[in-house]
Specification:
The complex is a heterodimer of chains A (229) and B (692). Chain A has 229 residues and is of the alpha+beta class. Chain A contains 1 helix and 11 strands. In chain A, the strands form 3 sheets. In chain A, strands 1-11-10-9-6 form a 5-stranded antiparallel beta sheet, with no helix packed on it. The longest helix of chain A has 31 residues. The N terminus of chain A is likely disordered. Chain B has a single domain, classed as Maltoporin, Chain A. Chain B has 7 helices and 38 strands. In chain B, a hairpin with a 5-residue loop joins strand 16 and strand 17. The longest helix of chain B is centred in the first third of the chain and has 22 residues. The chains are: A alpha+beta (229), B mainly beta (692). Chains A and B meet through strand 7 and strand 10 of A and strand 30 and strand 31 of B.
């Protein structure tokens, strides 16, 4: 009994690692392609990180009256770095967008209408630099949302955007603001928002171009525990 | 329209020539080359020869003003080296000097200051040049003599005083945009008594640079200036000057097709000065000055219900006494003391503030040797609201030889926070942003928050606990005057202004309507540095050619650091990835051109009783907006292209007492509707002057 159980355990373990390896190889094959496959003798390579782009992530917001307290409402558009896709899952998301607000799946809700409950321990901070120059996540900088404010501060010039005011009234991403994200699975990603307007026009017009449509570049580090990009 | 006008002008011009030839020969102008020593009072508050001053100073003569056919002060100042009219967001036209904004230049009329800086800048277009004897410009910080506001420099407008006998003149100028300028001076002086009155009326239909909507760039306006003066000589030792001024202006105020109203300005002052000479060495004056500036504006909507109604009422009362001691002809001392009492009543203010500020100043002006002139001065300004200010200044001039003189000065300048920066509580009715004075802000933010108007408060309110400091500057000027020959002279001045504690607004909260709440803080340290260069060539009495150039670097010190440390980023266009900017990508402060230049040619044709001139000014590119949102002006932002303005004028005297002038300002019809609101395009004019 004992023996067989032991044996069984061993087999299970073995098959687990087997399937992991297979998945791993498939992922490598998918991401990297056959051409870059290394020799069989090499130690198991890390999955290569790659730059991705998301175009026109629609993040509508309702409310925001002219007087009185803010009454922003509407579902946040949630994003999952691991799949590189938006999701409607209540739990399996990393960051989410609604109008100018960007929240993270970690911490506590600020309590606005339709704001999702944070179920994981994702976190974020804003680094200064270019997407290329931010090469490592600084673990001491990560923040989560709280009742008093989001980890990505709101307001022109405070967070990711600058409001140009009169007469253009444009919302443009502030240059040099790189969002560094710790995902719900403990992986790291860096992203740069490029536009708030549909199809990311080079010369947006706040009066004719539709918003909010986020276009951003990101780099996701799929290897567990690796903080560099 | 312009073609027709040009044709009319040309035909008038030819009529001119023909008529002048018919009249020939007139008595030949036999005036010798002007070699009068120009006298300036602004630099030392004593009578000084311009050419012997250790400070960078300049005189704009009545003759040049008249030959240029200028109407308002901004017209003529704009043509001087390093000076440029910059409209602020309220539309007031201020003068940028040594790279400092209009708010940092003190504007005096006969030695006493004008008030009415609604948004910080004093609108110099409210000053007519019709009764100006000369304009004195002193560059560099001069708070040692004048106290607050004299950071960039001082512009002192000296008006005419009655001369012996009866004199009178009448001026009328008509120009494009249905603009009329009518002025007259009547003066009489006999024995001890002199009286004069100056009157000016100026009106215009304004202009519109875009056809986009019914809004004009400048709305129609009309204004009047009355300036009576009385001089009385009690004895050879005692004389009295009493002068008054009244100014009013009405201007349409059109905010949209539905919101229309009017802006009214009223400004008066009284200036009494009693001069006393006790002996050859001692003299003194007592001066009393009071001035009030009222502005009202309202907007009514389509149903004639009042949409906005705003007022501004500022009063300044200043008594001053001063003593002058001239122990010998090599040195002079002045000592003065006075008191500024200032009040303001204004809409959108949290209270009715009162400023009381006693002051005293002392100056030594001496020539220890024949070649050296030294000026030592200092002033103390006490203040009811701020830390008192001590403003010293040292200036030195060394005459190397008959041709070359070196000069240098270092001085302190300050500008006390104005009423607005402390007590404002203003919400823009149409756009919805809020601007709060520093002292008013903590309460006002709490109130807005309680009303639920704030989405985010982005600063902590204890930032308002310490006092707002006066903006201050240390300025250094170094230069030389060089007389190459009797006909050719040049001067060069290198300047540096180190300005600290600059007050600027920054966002303190975001409102639920998406607009911001701003308040004022001591934010920036900036410097402006560069050089001013002037050259005058006057081969004979008929021809005068002057050229001027200013090189300017105006930068924020923290911005420079940020660029150096690689902390500043930009995008090529709005939606492209960020990249790091280099040190050289920092352009400097907004609305500063690196190069400004002017060239003026004045030419007399005595045989035709004519004079003509052509005056050109140039400013190189400058930035108005931080387009890429990194909060700095860098080489990837949009720039306003450099431009040149050329003005021409022809004047002719007929029957001795009549003088006709024709001219075109901005002959190449330069406009930039998007960026430059105060350049209306080509202006054609005709002017008549009659000496009574």
């Amino acid at each position: 009994m004992n023996f067989s159980k032991k044996n069984h355990e061993h087999i299970t373990k073995n098959s687990n690692s087997m399937s992991k390896t297979i998945k791993f190889l498939i992922v490598v094959a998918l991401f990297v392609g056959f051409a870059s496959c290394s020799d069989d003798d090499d130690p198991t390579p890390l999955v290569e990180v790659k730059s991705e782009s998301i175009v026109n992530l629609h993040a509508p917001v309702e409310g925001g009256s002219q007087q009185g307290a803010p009454t922003f409402s509407g579902e946040f558009t949630k994003f999952d770095f691991a799949t590189g896709k938006t999701t409607t899952s209540e739990t399996e998301w990393d960051i989410a967008f609604r109008g100018l607000s960007i929240i993270v799946n970690g911490g506590t809700s600020a309590g606005t209408t339709d704001e999702p409950i944070r179920t994981k321990e994702a976190a974020v901070y804003i680094a200064s630099g270019t997407i290329a120059s931010v090469t490592e996540a600084n673990l001491s900088m990560f923040k989560q949302d709280s009742e008093t404010g989001y980890a990505i501060p709101e307001g022109s010039g405070n967070g990711w955007y600058t409001y140009a005011g009169d007469p253009t009234h444009l919302i443009n991403p502030t240059p040099g603001k790189i969002l560094v994200v710790k995902t719900r699975t403990g992986n790291y990603a860096k992203m740069e928002i490029l536009s708030y307007y549909k199809d990311a026009p080079a010369e947006p017009d706040a009066f004719t171009d539709e918003s909010p449509y986020f276009t951003f570049n990101y780099v996701y580090q799929p290897n567990d525990g690796v903080t560099t990009f | 329209m312009s073609k027709k006008h040009i044709f009319t002008l040309l035909s008038l011009f030819f009529t001119f020539l023909v008529s002048s030839q018919e009249e020939n020969p007139t008595t030949k102008d036999s005036v010798k080359i002007e070699n009068l020593e120009e006298i300036i009072v602004t630099a030392t508050r004593t009578i000084r020869q311009l050419s012997s001053l250790p400070l960078p100073a300049q005189i704009i003569s009545q003759k040049d003003i008249q030959r240029s056919n200028s109407v308002r002060l901004n017209n003529i100042l704009n043509e001087q080296t390093g000076l440029i009219t910059i409209p602020d967001f309220g539309g007031s036209k201020g003068i940028q000097m040594q790279g400092l904004d209009g708010a940092y230049t003190l504007i005096l009329v006969d030695g006493v200051p004008l008030v009415g800086r609604l948004a910080g800048t004093l609108d110099i277009s409210r000053i007519t040049v019709g009764n100006i004897k000369q304009i004195e410009v002193v560059r560099g910080a001069s708070s040692s003599l004048y106290g607050s506001e004299a950071l960039g420099g001082v512009i002192n407008i000296i008006t005419e005083t009655p001369k012996n006998g009866f004199h009178g003149n009448l001026n009328y100028r008509i120009s494009s945009f249905n603009t009329h300028d009518l002025g007259t001076t009547l003066s009489y002086k006999k024995d001890k008594l002199g009286i004069s009155t100056f009157f000016n009326r100026y009106s215009s239909d304004g202009y519109s640079l875009t056809d986009r909507n019914e809004l004009s760039t400048v709305d129609p306006f009309r204004n009047h200036t009355i300036n009576p003066k009385l001089t009385y000589k009690f004895s050879n030792r005692t004389d009295l000057i009493v002068a008054g001024k009244y100014y009013n202006q009405k201007q349409d105020y059109v905010a949209s097709s539905l919101l229309k109203g009017e802006t009214k300005i009223e400004d008066w002052n009284t200036h009494i000065k009693l001069n006393n000479k006790y002996s050859d060495t001692w003299s003194s004056y007592f001066e009393f000055y009071a001035t009030q500036y009222n502005a009202n504006e309202y907007l009514d909507d389509a149903n004639s219900t009042s949409a906005t109604d705003a007022f501004y009422k500022q009063l300044l009362v200043r008594p001053e006494i001063r003593a002058t001691y001239n122990p010998n002809d090599k040195s002079s001392f002045i000592a003065g003391t006075g008191f500024n009492h200032e009040t303001l009543d204004r809409t959108d203010f949290s209270e009715k503030p009162i400023y009381n500020s006693p002051y005293a100043y002392l100056q030594y002006d001496g020539n220890p040797t024949e070649n050296i002139n030294i000026i030592l001065g200092a002033r103390f300004d006490g203040h009811s609201e701020y830390k008192s200010q001590f403003s010293p200044k040292v200036a030195l001039r060394y005459e190397v030889n008959d041709k070359l003189a070196l000069k240098g000065s270092i001085g302190y300048g300050f500008k006390a926070p104005d009423f607005r920066q402390l007590y404002f509580n203003f919400t823009n009715a149409t756009i919805g942003y809020t601007l709060l004075g520093y002292n008013a802000a903590p309460e006002a933010i709490k109130a807005l928050d309680e009303q639920g108007q704030l989405a985010i408060i982005s600063i902590s309110l204890d930032q308002f606990d310490s006092e707002l400091k006066p903006e201050n500057s240390v300025s250094i000027d170094l230069g030389f005057d060089y007389k190459i020959s009797t006909t050719l002279k040049l001067d060069l001045n290198l300047f540096r202004n180190n300005i600290d504690d600059l007050i600027d607004n920054k966002i303190v909260a975001t409102k639920t309507n998406g607009q911001s709440v701003f308040s004022y803080f001591n934010i920036n340290k900036v410097y402006t540095q560069g050089s001013e260069f002037n050259i005058t060539w006057r081969p004979d009495n008929q021809l005068k050619i002057t050229g001027g150039y200013q090189l300017l670097y105006a930068k924020d010190k923290d911005a420079e650091k940020a660029f150096k440390n690689g902390e500043v980023f930009a995008r090529v266009d709005a939606s492209s990835p960020s990249f790091q900017l280099k040190k050289d990508d920092y352009f400097g402060l907004f609305n500063r051109s690196r190069h400004m230049a002017n060239l003026k040619v004045f030419y007399n044709i005595p045989e035709w009783n004519m004079d003509t001139n052509i005056r050109g000014t140039y400013r190189s590119k400058y930035g108005l907006n931080d387009k890429n949102g990194n909060s700095y002006l860098d080489s990837y932002d949009d720039f306003v292209d450099g431009y040149a303005i050329v003005n021409v004028a022809v004047n002719k005297t007929i029957y001795k007492n009549y003088r006709l002038g024709l001219g075109i300002d901005n002959i190449f019809d330069f406009t930039d509707p998007q960026n430059i609101g105060n350049i209306p395009g080509r202006i054609l004019y005709a002017k008549l002057n009659i000496q009574l």
